[in-house]
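During the reporting period, our protein records have gained a structure token line. One record among many is quoted in full directly below:
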Amino acid sequence: MVERDGQILLVDDERFRFLPGERPRMEKVRFRTLGCYPLTGGVRSNADTLDAIVEETLGAVSSERTSRIIDFDGGAASMEKRKREGYF
């Protein structure tokens, strides 16, 4: 993973473009919403069972939308714009 602008980004293949000085590192993360790079950032988590994941999610104090990278890379309504463009 790489942390960029407060988001945890999955480095999953050669499409990932590193910024100067970025180096990938291994860390235990999971995704709170469906998707992966480049749409959704991960969250740090030690939850290792379904019950632990549910408990962690119910106890979260931030919105799941805070990890949706797609909302921040193209301005307001970025996801809706991409839907209209046929991205999904």
User: Anything to note?
Assistant: The chain has two helices and four strands. The mean pLDDT is 77.
